[in-house]
Structure formats: C-alpha cells, structure tokens
Amino acid sequence: MTTTNLPTNQELIAKRQQHFLPTAVLYHDQPLQLVKAQGEYVWDSEGKRYLDAIGGIVCISAGHNHPKIKKALMGMLENDVIQHTSTLYLTRYPVELAETLLEEAPEGLDRAAFTNSGSEANELAFMAARQATGETMVLNLRHGYHGGTSGTLSQCGHHTWRFRAQPNASAVSALEPYCYRCPFKQHPDSCNLECAQNVETTIQTATHGKIAAMVVEPVMGVGGFITPPERYFSEVTRIVHEYGGKFISDEVQTGAGRCSHELLLTKGLGIDADIVTMAKGFGNGAAIGGVLMRSEIADELSGKVYFNTFACDPYQTVQAKVTLDIIKQEQLADNAMAMGKRLMDGLQGLMQQHQIIGDVRGRGLLMGIELVKDRKSKAPAAAETARLMDICKDRGLLLGKGGLLVNVIRLAPPLAVNAAQIDTIIETIDSALHQLAKEA
Length: 440
Ligand SMILES: Cc1ncc(COP(=O)(O)O)c(C=O)c1O
Known about the structure:
By secondary structure, this protein is of the alpha/beta class. The protein is built from 14 helices and 15 strands.
C-alpha cells in the first residue's frame, strides 16, 4: 500500500465542502480516509489498521477484497471481457447470477431482475406491485428507510431524509414494531401485537380499502436495527393480502446471509412475501441491486419495457454471483449466526455493567446497541453515541450509527468474522464505555 501522494484529510474535507452538496455527511469528528482493505480489516491513509464492524454501510458480506472476487474480476479484465453491454445483448453473467440467486429464494419467488442500487430495486418492486394490483397505495412503517429516490423517499419514516418540497404520493405509514419504544406502551411478552393490528386500522382509515403493497424491512436498518417480533410477519402478511396488496420484503440490509441460516431472512423466518429486494451485501460492495418476485406479478409487466442502462453489467453481476458462491461454499450464513450469537451474548453482558445501554437487539450479524441517558426515561444519548464511535475508532474499531434519535450503535461485520475478532469488538466497546463514563 502506498500512502504517498495522497491528499490530506483537511484538503479532502475542504474540497468536499466546496464541490459536494451539503447533504454529503461524514462519520467521525476527525473523518478517516480509508485506502486499503482486506477481509475484516481496513487501513487509513496513515497506515493504521481497523477492524471493520460496519462494512461500508452493511455492504461487505464475503469480506473486503475476497481472493475469489479479485481473481474473477482480474481474470475478466485480463481477458478483455466486455465491460458494458446492456440487456439488449446476450451475456451469460446476469443469467448465471439469476440462476444462483433463485436457487436460494423463498418458495414461489421464481423471477429475478437486477438494478444498480437498493433504491432502484424498491422502485421496481413498487411499480410491479402497482401494475399487478391496479392500485397505487403503498404502506410503509415509521422509522423505515427504502432509498434516496423520489418514490422510495415518499416511503421514508425518518424526518432527517425528508426534504421540504418532496412529493409524497400514494404512501401512508403504519406504526413501528419497535418493542423498546413501543408506540402502544406494551411489552413484547404480553402484548397483543398492536403494531400488526395497526396495519389493518391504517388501511381501513387512510386508504380507500385496497392497497398495492406494503414494504417492510425484516430488521429495520437505518431505523437502528429495530427487530420486529417473529409473529409480527405472519399477521401483517395476512392483513396485506386480505386487502389485495403485495408484501415487499426489503432485504437490502438483512439479505446475503447476514441474518439467518438462509441467504434471505424472508426465507429464514418463513415470511409470506411476494417480492424481495436486495442490494449492499448482495454484491459485496458492487453497485448492484436485485428484485425477486412471483411469476404472476412478473407476468403482469408483459408488453411493457423496463430498461436500466447499467443493470446486468458483466462485472457487477459476476461480483454478485461470486459473492453468493462464497457465502454458500464457505457457509458464511451459518458462521454469521454463530458469531451473531457470540456478539449478542457479549453485548448483553456489557448491558449488565453499563447503564447507558438501554437495549441490545438484532439478528445474526446485524446488531444494534441503543444508548440512553437513563433507563427509566429512555432519553436518547445521541452525543454519547457519536463519542463512543470516535473512541472505538481511535482504538482500531469501526462502528456505524443509526436510529431516528441517532442513538443506536450499528454493528454489521463481514460474515467470516471469527470468535477472536468478535471478542475484540466486545472488549473494545467495553473499554470505550468505561472511558465514556469517565468523561461524563
Ligand atoms: C433497507 C434499505 N433499503 C434500501 C436502501 C437503498 O439502497 P441504496 O442506497 O443502494 O439505493 C437502503 C440503503 O441504506 C436500505 O438500508
């Protein structure tokens, strides 16, 4: 790795401020310039190594620069494999990706399409559901996030991402299945799934009685890894279907072997979804999204053209196909579950010692720690969350953050993370929390 001739961080920050839109934000008080990556680690411009427990933003599934991905891509470049064709010409790569993906799909989801991003995957899902049902209304959840395009932003449950003149057509929000801050003041052990019932009352009160779809993340990523109870999904899919809608499972963060022994959490939890969308870890960081749907929905698109210039390009589709192969061959979903359990146990142990931890939740290797000023009031500890990230960064560990109240630490390390690395994550967070307490 060469760190010579790199612009300084200050130069980059100044030029970003000059050239970028003010919407481009940075992690950390002293932002990092990352220049190299391998497996579970990344290096900054000073040559310092970090254990990457967030993977870009939940994008690194197989591991940074996995040797099999490098070999496949370098082999293509060396052989002058065509870089761009569009779907108007035949190429084997997207077809092979579709075959590999459909082998792992939930039963009944037998057609695939590819896009450049998760936002576009969701746009295509909304369009397909609307075309199939003849309805326009799509339900979402407060605290949900589905992308940065106009249609997906109208389904966004976060004020932070909402702009003044943003159109908001055919979208309505149901209340969140957020057990730690239950909007119905219930407890998960004794509740009557009021959150699921709210989907029905929302349809009955805020729509004309029929809907096109409901879009739900099986674990709500940007919302701070809000983890709905398992029984939520059977009730909600039943309601959505009863009112004529398609259930869209947004697996942009949860997919690719991160959250269950299956590639898709939808299959792992037996969610009766009609459409599943993917991106992020699906391509191990490549700019690719995917949509899986039932044939009967796909057939309703017949006679129309959906064209996406870069979707299905050889290099992206090869990277996604090799990523899926690695996840299967190296049994990374099983490892994610085992390491996820170790992480959960460790974090629950930290919760007993550190009062600032209000909640620990997640599935597999998608784990959130919600920080609060005190456990009774649950006042969000947003400044402390940012500070904790900075302390961990200084100690060689990269974490993410999220949640509407910006008080949730997000952990999503590469799927091959090992026990020693999980222990390092827990020990580093522990020591950082002690430091945070000393600073208070
Ligand atoms: C659940 C979910 N859906 C969709 C998206 C949008 O994906 P992209 O940023 O690739 O457009 C995101 C991005 O964070 C996401 O977390």
